[in-house]
Amino acid sequence: MARAIVYTEIGTPDVLQLVEIPVPVPEPGQVVVRIEAAGVNPLDAKLRRGARPGPPITEPRRVGFDGAGVIESLGDGVTGLAVGDRVAIRDTVGTYATHLAVPVDHLSLLPDAVTADEGASLGIPIGTAYQCLRSLGVGPEDTLLVHAGSGAVGQAAIQFAVSWGARVIATASPARHAQLRELGAVPVAYGDGLADRVREAAPEGVTVALDCIGTDEAIDVSKQLVADHERIATIVRGPDAAELGIRAFSGGSPQPLTEQERAWRAEAVPLAIAKLAAGDFQIELGPELPLAEASRAHELIEQHAARGKIVLVP
Predict the structure, then answer these.
(1) Three-state SS at 91
(2) Which of 235, 240, 300, 303 allows an S-S link to 252, with CB 3.0 to 4.6 Å?
(3) Among residues 271, 194, 209, 199, which one has the least CA distance to residue 241?
(4) Are 38 and 66 in contact (CB under 8 A)?
(5) pTM of the prediction?
(6) In whole angstroms, what is the distance from residue 68 CA to residue 86 CA?
């Protein structure tokens, strides 16, 4: 038997249960992956507590979208992959488990230089950052303001933008400033006077902004500093983005992803893997917890009590 985390009602982290399930059998175009690490994302907790709309729960609901592991079996028609290959999983429900059937187009091969924990940390935050920057058209002529630069999406956005030649200003608490400098950003502290501090850090002006925190301060300062409000985006304030006169992407958007946005997200993970393997990209890893402690992982992510990516290990 395999094991998986499920919930049967909306609620606190205590609703998460570890249960036994049949080992999955791959359908055509799928492989079964033995999960070695599952990435824990804020989206997982939002869905569990009902902060995102969804259909009624009529059967045990699986958890998690990102993971990494080893292929154990192949479905009909699968080519280019083999049993024993190490892979990263993106955009596939149910990664909080020991085994999962995954469509082959949701997999990226992992080289030995990239760990399972790193591979499991990529899908949602890397895809979100990359897609947002591509949608905003960030390039070498830009100065980008990233709010919450020390978070997983913020760190990825900094690294992609810097690699494309953009100048990046990123907000964070002073304790995280050294880390942001290492990633290539100019750090500024949030709080009263933020707009003035950003102006001092970027006297030539700010051309584009990405909000990863959702505070009124982040939105207001972005609107003060960026002349073209079509180049301000939030991944948090989707429901009121139109009223605010800015764009919303990712889980913050009331609109489904476009075909182009999905393509950018798919492109992001293998790109990040190649950069990780070459030593040109960083993933900040946080606590590694047993699969059975998924509820604790959700407590940590909801309390903002962990620094770095939380990973569950079956």
Answers:
(1) coil
(2) 235
(3) 209
(4) yes
(5) 0.96
(6) 7
Type of residue at 29: G
Would you list the DSSP string of 263-303? HHHHHHHHHHHHHHHHT-----EEEEEEGGGHHHHHHHHHT
Helix (H) or strand (E) run with residue 75 in it: none
Write the single-letter amino acid at 49.
R
**pLDDT (tens digit, 9 = 90+) per residue, 21-75?**
999 999 999 999 999 999 999 999 999 999 988 889 999 999 999 999 999 999 9
How far out from the chain centre does Cα 176 lie?
Answer: 19
Question: Residue 3: what residue type?
Answer: R
Report d(CA 65, CA 288) in Å as an integer. Answer: 17
- Which residues fall within 8 angstroms of residue 303, CB to CB, at 6 or more apart? none
Max Cα-Cα span within the chain = 61
